[in-house]
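Proteins fold reproducibly. Look at a sample protein:
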Amino acid sequence: MDYDVLIIGGGIAGLSLAWRLAPQLSVVVVEAESTLAFHSSSRSARQMQPSYGPAPIQELTMRTLEFVEQMSAGLPAPILVPRPLLTLGTQNDVAALVARNAHLVPLSHAETMERSPDLHPGAFEAAALDSTAMEVDVPSLIEFYRSQAVAAGALVLTNSRVGSVVPHGSAGFSVTAGERCLTAGVVVNAAGAWADTVAQLGGVRSRGLVPHRRSAAIVSTEHAVNPAGPMVQPTDESYYFRPDGPHLLISPCESIPAEPGDAQVVDADISELISRIGAVTTLGITGVVRAWTGLRTHPVDGLPVVGFDADVPNFFWLAGQGGYGIQTSAALAGLAAALITGTLTDDDGALAAALSPQRAGLG
């Protein structure tokens, strides 16, 4: 057998798991593209927000923040910098949001304008603040996972699209990846938008993982952007914007089912968003510097799918992170590694069950 664990997918999910496993097991990561983290991982909002997502996601986010802060201690520059999240809405909507989310505190209209003076005063009634939210240097985070995995002995292969996954029961798998034929005791499906396709190659039942496109753009503005300003969104999370150096990063937060692939921007989505943000701020967007689209893949219940498949021995799911992949990466990799090595603690049993590929309603 060539490897203990073969990970399909060189995005942040696959690389973070390799980081956790390589000190204990022989690991190979195979990536179809010539560049690691080419698709969703490199096209994110670059935020970690403890108030974002359902309870299991919030728990994983808090753990990941702690992990990444520890990682940063030995690096030339921090991976995380404060970027508070400001959520705007009516008095009733904000009050309801704060009541169900312990990470949020209410702000008055005056307090909100003090924090973000480039807002139109008439565009909202109240706001909630997540002061624990952080902006993430995603390239540095990905490189940390990759370099640490390689230093511990992991092999990372690019230009290695998987063509077949042949299970041999308890004996593991034979996998063709590019021009190589590899064998491994465990195969990890961290293939993002292609996760169900990879599962089918191995004769594994799909889990209803559907890619959805989401776009973002960097735009220039007539008036100067405060580089230390907050990320801003409405209570329905239908768009967001935040400073990006001298520019503004914006997203329409669309979630449109799409085929796996190199997703492309729909110009009309960005144009409509520019109009919406123009009604909320006084910045005056003057043009698009660049725009991109990524794929956020998740099952119907919106939670990641993590764990061994019940029907195909040693086939492991690490997929369906949706928009939570960056902010949960370190903790989710730790949970997956514990499941693979049989070291899961009782304290994490409920969390593992909530993400299990065997949970009700998948596929």
About this structure: DSSP finds nine helices and 20 strands in the chain. Residues 14 and 190 are 5 Å apart (CA to CA). The chain has a mean pLDDT of 93.
